[in-house]
Amino acid sequence: MKITGVRATAVNIPLVVPFLFAVGTYPGDTKVVIEVLTDEGITGLGEAPSPECAAVINDHLAQALTGLDPLDIQACERACVPDLQVMPNTGDSTVLRAFGGIEIGLWDIRGKAFRQPLYMLLGGAFRKDIPFAEYFAFRQSRNGIGGERTPHAIADYCASMTDQHGSTMFEGKLQLGDPMLEIASVKAIRHAIGDTALLRLDGNMSWSLPTARRILAEIEPYNIRNYEDPVATLEGMAKLRQHSSISFSTHTVDLQRALRLGVPDSFVTNLAVLGGISRAVRFIAACERTGIGWWCFSGETGIGIAAYLHLIAATPWVTEPGQCILHWQVDDVIEEGPFNPKNNVVRVPEGYGLGVTLSPERLRRGHERYLRDGPYNYFRDPDAPGQYRRLPLH
């Protein structure tokens, strides 16, 4: 089998209502859908996490991969990715993320060629119901949907997710520059969802060290499972560790610093960011050996979600729920999507490879949104059009 082409298409997947966070507005996700074509008619589906990956794939990596055996993942990586030890000295990680999306497609081809679900190629299913944490945030209002801007409103929203979807796991963003708003919201949410429901928070690196200390001291009695990126650096997180027993996670994937500093307790990232499924397996094994947790962040299309489902099905170490905005996504690029978590879980697909089907119509629709609107900008101030939001000083 030979690769005959690789096609990368940037798409915008909107949310039903934009949500707010410390320095911007989140209207949806811009992702890159990847199709790896072969001379045997098998097409592998992958997903890259950022729009700049599309040009790298279409202009460079597609040519480098043409004629190679898609089952030989190591040869494909050597044709595309420089040595990772020296790459930061000469460039950024765009090519690694781009190939990471392609590599997911190579695994999809492998599963289809061997007529097996991807999780079987990764060692078999330790679990088939994969947990996700329902997301919450302060949101804009549109057509009677959203508009949660107070502690009471956001607590009511969480309670409604329990009623509608059986959700007892929650994670969200509560930072709008006012620490008292976050503290009051945590108390209201905990009252609404009960004492035993899982509750995680995401700070987006937005708080100063003194403010984070204050917030953590106030919310610690409310059984917070984890706080992601409460401050901007791992060094600041290490100082916070002296004042709080709440677990910390981060998007900053630096295992050596984590071991040196004793934080974070978990990494939260994306398969393609790590360079694909093979590298993610090795990275999670290193986390297991050193006692550090791992789970995946939210915002992928159904292709990226499917890859995550298969990996976690085959990975006993990952027990925490992934982040989830699936109930907020109004479109997808696969026929089966968006996935719909019920009672905190999504069932791993049982088809060959990733087990999902690309929808040409949905792909076209997502790409047209991208061409019309450009990549989603997450840092604009909703109250001051044309400006970027700045963090208030505390």
Briefly say what this structure is:
By secondary structure, the protein is of the alpha/beta class. The chain has 13 helices and 14 strands.
What is the oligomeric state here? single chain
Distance between the terminal alpha carbons, to the nearest Å? Answer: 59 Å
Category by helix and strand content = alpha/beta
Which geometry do the CA atoms define?
Answer: globular
Supply the number of structural domains. 2
Segments where pLDDT lies below 50 for 5+ residues? none
Mind telling me which CATH architecture of the largest domain this is? Alpha-Beta Barrel
The percentage of residues in β strands lies in: 15-25%
* Overall number of strands: 14
In helices, the fraction of residues equals 25-40%
CATH class category of the largest domain = Alpha Beta
Provide structural commentary:
The protein has helices spanning 52-65, 73-80, 87-90, 94-114, 118-121, 151-165, 179-193, 209-219, 234-241, 255-261, 277-290, 302-313, 360-373, and strands at 3-21, 24-38, 43-48, 129-137, 141-142, 145-146, 169-173, 198-202, 226-228, 248-250, 266-269, 293-296, 322-324, 345-347. With 394 residues, the chain is α/β, with parallel strands linked by helices. It folds into two domains: 3-116 and 360-373, Enolase-like, N-terminal domain (Enolase-like, domain 1, 2-Layer Sandwich), CATH 3.30.390.10; 120-347, Alpha-Beta Barrel (TIM Barrel), CATH 3.20.20.120. Strand 8, helix 8 and strand 9 (226-228) form a beta-alpha-beta unit.
